[in-house]
Amino acid sequence: MSTFGERLSAAMAQHGPLCAGIDPHAGLLSAWGLDDDVAGLETFSLRCVEAFGGNLACVKPQSAFFERHGAAGIGVLERVIAGLRDAGTLCLLDVKRGDIGSTMTGYAQAYLADGPLSVDAITVSPYLGYESLRPALDLATANDRGVFVLTLTSNPEGQRVQHASAPPTHDGAAPPGSVAAEIVAGVTADNAVARAKHLLGSVGMVVGATVADDVRRLHLDLSAANGPLLAPGIGAQGGSGSDLAAAVGTARAAILAASSREVLGAGPDVAQLRDAARRTSTRLAEELA
Ligand SMILES: O=c1ccn([C@@H]2O[C@H](COP(=O)(O)O)[C@@H](O)[C@H]2O)c(=O)[nH]1
């Protein structure tokens, strides 16, 4: 099988840069005329699969909105994942997992090995240390899956952690600067083999569409990292593809722009939802060009 980076490159070339979110907020269920229960969750989510499957490069279910319904909600998530797989559309599960290595192995097995929650890629949180993610990084590589490491998140609170200076390493090597820069350095190293083959790497970063100024302020070289950049914050959070594209240099080609509420507001009609996603993808392609 081809690597996740190769599959994502091909999908973006075919369908454009939009990664539509499936975020079944209680408010959106209500706006679609659905009850805030498992039946409403299932109707909402499977309409999204019908609208987006086969039409977009990637779809990003937000695990939180399935987990809040308990085991039955996870069952719906399993059916969403299966539906996207059947449609041939990449599924990036936004689940932001991160733990000590031994536990991280369990999370990696849940999402990056074969099983009911197996997806093409997941989001991971590096705040227990980039190397604590090693079990997920290694299993993703072994199974041709991907991970997206939180690097500069779209929310304003993230700055206090992500802009902080990284302490010196135990071996005395000079730290690369900020916490965010340390994560970029880890991703750069993990994508080196793909880079040598002139392929997009399978280790991506989450860099919010709202934080273009921070990318410049921290002097992050996202091009050298050679991974896809998941850019949430388009639409409802006020971010724009063009601002981020201007800040990341040649990495703009690797921006996978995530938008949830802006697109989902076009439901519940499947055709209108599909049209909204296509329009957003076309607009984002222009902003990122
Ligand atoms: O830095 C981050 C990381 C993840 N997200 C997630 O993306 C969507 C955004 O939803 P919108 O409705 O388009 O604002 C949501 O699932 C977040 O958890 C993020 O926003 N920022």
TrEMBL record:
It catalyses: orotidine 5'-phosphate + H(+) = UMP + CO2. It comes from the Bacteria. Keywords: Decarboxylase, Lyase, Pyrimidine biosynthesis. Belongs to the OMP decarboxylase family. Type 2 subfamily. Gene3D superfamilies: Aldolase class I. It comes from Kineosphaera limosa NBRC 100340. Pathway: Pyrimidine metabolism; UMP biosynthesis via de novo pathway; UMP from orotate: step 2/2. GO terms for molecular function: orotidine-5'-phosphate decarboxylase activity. One of its GO terms (biological process) is 'de novo' pyrimidine nucleobase biosynthetic process. InterPro entries: Aldolase_TIM (IPR013785), OMPdecase_type-2 (IPR011995), OMPdeCOase_dom (IPR001754), RibuloseP-bd_barrel (IPR011060). Its EC number is 4.1.1.23. The active site is at K96 (proton donor). Residues 17-276 form the Orotidine 5'-phosphate decarboxylase domain. This is Orotidine 5'-phosphate decarboxylase.
